[in-house]
Each structure stands twice: as structure tokens, then as C-alpha cells.
Amino acid sequence: MSEGQDTAPATPTFREAVRYWARLGCINFGGPAGQIALMHGDLVERRRWIGEQRFLHALNFCMLLPGPEAQQLATYVGWLLHGTRGALAAGLLFILPSVLVLWALAAVYVTWGSLPLVAAALAGIKPVVVAIVAEAVVRIGRRAFRHPLHYGFAAAAFVALAVFAVPFPLVVAAAAVAGALAGRFVAGFAPPAGSGPPGTAAADGRPPSAARAGRQLALFAALWLAPLALVAGPYGAVLPVGRDLYLFFTQAALVTFGGAYAVLAYVAQIAVASFGWLDAAQMIDGLALAETTPGPLIMVLEFVGFLAGWNHPGALAPLAAATIGALTTVWVTFLPSFAFILVGAPYVEALRGRRGLASALAGVTAAVVGVILNLAVVFGRAVFAPAGELAPIPVVVAAIALLLLARLRLAAHWVVLCGALAGLGLALAGL
Predict the structure, then answer these.
(1) What phi-psi label fits residue 216: left (phi over 0), alpha (psi between -120 and 50 degrees) or beta?
(2) Which of 8, 50, 53, 380 is deepest in the core (most CB within 10 A)?
(3) Spatial separation of the C-alpha atoms in residues 322 and 307, rounded to whole Å
(4) What letter does residue 255 receive in the DSSP assignment?
(5) Quick one: 48 exposed, middle or buried, by C-beta within 10 A (0-12, 13-18, 19+)?
(6) CA–CA separation, 350 vs 334, rounded Å?
(7) How far apart are CA 419 and CA 400, in angstroms?
């Protein structure tokens, strides 16, 4: 399939591509928007390894899928350049530095997090995290609310979670169904479904092959089932939380429409309230640490897995249990992303341009704003009124952080650093 004038003039060698993906994995701060912009500038404008239309085409695929869209986009581009080995290199190197860094930060957190200076820095970071989530509500809502009915979807999702404790997957499913119905009967509910007719060929020019997809799907199923056999058998005997971690985060990986903040609300609902793997304050700390590392923000789930193992080590040493919990969570969080790209991309292509799909996604996107608002409320209650009474200093720190984020457009990891410094300064001042 020719791209005409959009064809990239040069294809890198596999070694050149690997060097680039390794570098990208170390500097991809800024969340999905920043990561996608970074890849566009590098791959399309400077290196010209991929054409503009092919890049946007790949991005459209990834926006339709659950999971971290920036990591999936890197995986997809790697597939375009060098096939399956390119997809694996790009996708793995996109997350490997953040996996290592967040493991180290989590180990420091559980070992020295109670020291006065570390505790003071974390106290200053917590209000910043609330501000980051609140700013995400505004930012995503600005994109999602194109019709008055979208506000109703967000409000319904918020009430379902905050008042009735409806499980997150049911909220997403209901929003998708209601969105599809609204798209049929309410003018202007959904944006245009996409330019051009639905596609029928894979991005490499070959038509979808059921035989090839079946082989790949069987391989991914084996890669998922083999560790499950361990967590349900001998592994489960020494780390009792292993099986629950494996199954829960597999489910979470399949419902992460709307980005990391949306799935974080789901994880907070289950991991904190139901399983008791960690508490709300630790969840906030984990998000703060994830904001300071490269890689997708959904990497915060590694921290949850680490804390689950640390707090419930079973027969293992706490650090060993925490490491197994972290790696288990990373495995089941990102394995579906590779499966979606390598198995599903040719078939997702065939869905482009479908108005019903665009309407369903519009409903989910609007509902996600209410989901994230509920997360902000949960975090805000834990930070601003930990003992039932309003604490004014965290409120002021959060307001300043919100100003830095929304007005001055300061990157989140720099605002987190400012919060840590503010916490240290307040502690030294005796406040």
C-alpha cells in the first residue's frame, strides 16, 4: 500500500531503531500527549522514518484500544519498521527504564519512607497529586464535552461510583452502550468517526489472516496461562496474593479505556477497599512516584503490585514478595498491549469509520471524566481531611500546584518536585 508523497525516505537498520527506542524509554516524560508529541517530532519530522499519514493512522488504531496508547503506538511503529521483533523491541524498551526506576523508588519508599525528611517530602507531594488529578478532569473534560449530553454521562458515572459503588467495568460498558444508542438518536453526540472508509488491510500491506492471528493468539494465551498455573499452584502457596494480583490486573488491563487516571480509579476501588493491598495514602504516594519517572503513567500499577507483595508477603521475605508482585503486575498489564497490536491491529483497521463505534467511544470518554472526578474526591478526602477536619496547608499547596499546571503549563514531574521541596520547607519551618 503506497503512501505517495508521505512515504518515509529512509528506513533505519534494526540496530539504529533499537538505539532510538532505548533512548526514548529514558526520556519519555510528560504523559501520553507529551510522549506522542515526542515520537511525532522524532520519527516523522526529524528522522523521517515514517510518514505523517502512516503515523496518524497508527495513532488512530491505538486510541481505539484499552491500555497505554503511547506505548502501543511505539509498538505499532516498531512493527511497521521491523515486524514482530521491531514491535517487541519498541514496546519493551518504552517501559523497561520506568519498570527499573519505579521498582527502586518503591524499595526506597517502603524502607525509608517513614524517615522524617522522606515523610515530609511525601507530605508535600500528596496535595500536588490531587491537583494533577483535578487538572486532568478539566483537561479531559474540555476534549470530551462536545454535547450537553456528555455532561450527563460524566455525572452519571460519578454518581454510580461515588454513591452506589458500581464496579468500574460496568460503568464503562454502560457508557459504551448508552453512547452507541445516543449516537443513533441524538444529533451531534459523536464526532466524525474518522477520515476515509473502513480499512481492510494490515498496516504492512497484507490482508488480515485468520491463520496468522490464530497462531499469535495461541502464543499470547500460552504466555498468559503459564504464569497463571504458577500463581494457582506452588507460587500461590508462598505468596497468597499472587493469584488475585494476576487475575485482577489482567482484568484491569482490558478496561483501561480513558487512560491511566480512569483505571487508577478502578484500582483504588478494588485494591484499597476490597483487597486491602495498600491504603489510600500509599496509593497517592505511588501516583506521585510514577509521575516522576519516564514511561506510561499506568506504571503506577507496578507500585500497587509491589506494595501488595510487601504488605502481604506470605512465606517470602518482604522484598522478594514485593518484587514478584511488581513483576506480576507489569506482566499482565502490558502483555495485552502487545497482543492488541500484533494480533488485533489488522482487524481494528476494519472498524475505522464506523459511526456506532465512534458514538460508543464518545460515551465512554465522557463517562471517564466522571470517573476521574471520583478519583480526585477520594484522593482529596485522604489528603485534605485525613482526620475528618480540613487541613488548610495541603489545600494551599494543591491550589498553587493547580495554578502551575493549568496556567503556567509546568510539566507534572516538575510540579511534583516543587511539592517535595515545599514539604521539606514546611517541615523545617515546623508547620
Answers:
(1) alpha
(2) 50
(3) 6
(4) S
(5) middle
(6) 24
(7) 9
Could you report the per-residue pLDDT of 6-34, keeping only the tens digit for each? 444 468 999 999 999 999 998 887 567 66
Radius of gyration, alpha carbons of the chain: 22
Helices and strands, counts by H and E, the chain: 18, 0
The tens digit of pLDDT for each residue in 269-282 reads 889 888 999 988 88
pLDDT for position 77: 92
Smallest CA-to-CA distance from 311 within 349, 358, 276 is with 276
The closest of 299, 384, 431, 306 to 128, measured between CA atoms, is 384
pLDDT of residue 338: 95
- Extract the C-alpha cell encoding 300: 503506577
Residue 37 reports pLDDT greater than 90: no
Query: Pick from 316, 187, 169, 298: which is nearest to 239 by CA?
Result: 316
Q: Grid coordinates 519505579 are at which residue?
A: 102
Q: What is the pTM of this model?
A: 0.76
What residues have CB less than 8 Å from 331, skipping those under 6 apart?
Answer: 227
SS3 219: helix
- The DSSP-derived string for 123-165 is HHHHHHHHHHHHHHHHHHHHHH-SSHHHHHHHHHHHHHHHTT-
Distance CA 362, CA 282 (A): 33
Tell me if 293 sits within 8 A of 98, measured CB to CB: yes
Here the cell at position 44 is: 516523522
* Phi, psi (rounded to 5 degrees) for 297: -65, -25
Place of cell 511525601: 122
And the C-alpha cell for 174? 454502560
- What DSSP character marks residue 241? H
**4 CB-contact burial (10 Å; exposed 0-12 / middle 13-18 / buried 19+):** exposed
Cα–Cα distance between 45 and 86 in angstroms, integer?
20
* Contacts with 421 (C-beta within 8 Å, 6 or more apart), sequence order: 121, 124
